[in-house]
Amino acid sequence: WQVLAIYMVLAASPSEQQALKQACPSCDASQLCNCSSMGLEFIPPGLTGKITVLNLTHNRIKRIQAQDLQQAVNLRALLLQSNEISSIDEDSFQSLEKLELLDLSNNSLAHLSPVWFGHLFSLQHLHLQGNSYRDLGQSSPFSRLRNLSSLHLGNPQFSVIRQGNFEGIEFLHKLWIDGSNLSQYEQGSLKSIKQINHMIINLRNSNIFSEIVRDLVHSVTWLEVAEIKLPVEKKSLVQNSTRPFRIQKITFKEAYFTDQTISRAIVSLKEITSLKELEAINCVLEGKGIWNTTEIARSRPSFVETITIIKVIIQNFHLFFDLKGMESQIKQLKRLTIASSNVFMVPCQLARHFSSLLYLDFHDNLLVNKRLDETICEHSWPSLQTLNLSQNSLKSLELTAKYVSRLPKLNNLDISLNNFGEIPDACEWPKLLKYLNLSSTQIPKVTSCIPGTLEVLDVSGNNLKEFGLQLPFLKELYLTRNQLKTLPGAAPIPNLVSLSMRRNKLNGFSKEEFEGAQVGAVHLSLMECHRSLVVSLICILVFLLILLLVAVGYKYHVVWYLRMTWAWLRAKRKPKRAPPKDVCYDAFVSYSEKDSEWVENTMVRELEQACPPFRLCLHKRDFVPGKWIVDNIIDSIEKSHKTLFVLSEHFVRSEWCKYELDFSHFRLFDENNDAAILILLEPIQSKAIPKRFCKLRKIMNTKTYLEWPAGQQQQQMFWENLKGALKS
């Protein structure tokens, strides 16, 4: 019995390996086993210790059994997302001590068991989102996961977080929770995690938001909240929270604010003294900017240095107030971004109070030159060094330069993607300006308007035909997407280190153009270096391709098939029945040449010598000489009252019979048309008929057909039935 058992184990192994190879061919002799989107309903057998990555995503697996992964002891990554898994045996992952990534997201797990993860000592990334569990149980499912770095959990049904649910986790690089329908949060539940670098949570319940923030201010570095409708919070956000605070950045995505809630939020967030950065993306502000500036000014000073606002929708932005009274709250700001938010101006009085601001980004807004005069008034933005005004509605380069010259410390200016259209001969710029981006501004040329203090200049995408400026300090020059035919001279830009000339009309250049200057590195495409050679190679390849197509077309009669397709399309546009005056025959006979003896000597004689005689159309006798055979087939079918198919094994193997079916089945084989008569000359299975003629097979299964009998007496009845069908 022992020998028999050993033999059975050894015999089963090759069969399992064969089953694995058949279910998932990529698993053969590979450490990466990719079985994604293969319609699998179970984990394939035969998985061995050599596999380190197993991808079973997008299948129909419903259950993970204990033996499924028992031999895959060296797995590092197990991807099971987007299946239908609703059941996992408790010791399914027991042998996966080296597993680092487990993805069970988007399945049908109604609960989570701590036993599943008990032996996953090396696990770093666990994805459980998109299932159907409502909570994490009464204790922590993750208590043994000491090396866990990222955790994704939650779903639209997830509604409860309890104390103890995260016990055992001390550090997370990333925690993502889908709590869009979270209704109950026990205070202190997240407090057990000592440090979280980045936490993302979808949260609609505004009351829970405050409780979560109180638990996280000491542990999270970056908190990202989505879908929240901020509450009017009266209690302190840091009440009973452990100091020192760790939270440095808060991001709101797709959040909803009102004048009242944003006023209260500003006051509350100022209590988090560690907070340095605020971000709002794709948010909605319902209000006119009537904020409680008195309460805001009376509260403690803000420590926030960076504010980023992207794609914020203000319902009535044209009625928005000038935020008078907020001056005291912006003095410590160092970086401000308001992009894609319909900003058309900043009041001068407010702009003058941004005394510490170093970086200002207003790209993709509605700024025009007239409003820019107000936005950048005298003594505004006194410390500003970097300004981005790209993709606005500025029209005058001269006025734009004049207004920004009021910024004494400005050294980096981006005014790209504005439609200036023209450039003056002289402009007034900030004296310290070193970086200027004028790309895609429709300027037709470069003039002395460009400041001589520049170290970096980008004039890409302007259709420039020449560049001859004297820029003694310039180190980087970007001339991409212009119409330049020659390189800019080396003498006027002696300190140039980097030059970009892509997508111009440069045909070549000589050593003299560099006037002896040594080039460190050149990045030129093959087309730019050897244009003639590349064009010649392309012409040769095109010629060879045409030659190949002609040869293939000749070998496989492509021209003939194209003519046949054109004829078929013309036939399809014709009416399904010809006018009675055009009908010349009682039936067109479609048959194989190998059945011609029976057709011509038996059937034709019986029908054409009947009283009255039937007029039959045969391709041998009645096709018009010199006319293309496909046109003959179509015309004969149209000029016949019926179409008579003599079916046999020879018929379904005949190419011409297939064509005759092709040109007739779309007008004959419909539910209410009896123009087709089928004769079975010999027994034939409907499945032997080509699959593309599905309606013919359907007729054979649903409608009566005539079968040629062997006996003499039955043959007389056959002829009577056939004549009756032709007369109907």
Automatic annotation (TrEMBL):
TIR domain mapped to chain residues: 583-726
Biological processes per GO annotation: inflammatory response; innate immune response; toll-like receptor signaling pathway
GO molecular function: transmembrane signaling receptor activity; triacyl lipopeptide binding
Localization, UniProt: Membrane
Gene3D superfamilies: Ribonuclease Inhibitor (3.80.10.10), Toll/interleukin-1 receptor homology (TIR) domain (3.40.50.10140)
Disulfide linkage: C27-C33, C348-C377, C427-C449
Transmembrane segments annotated in the record for this chain: 533-554
Protein known as: TLR21 protein
Organism per entry: Loxia leucoptera
Gene transcribed to yield this protein: Tlr21
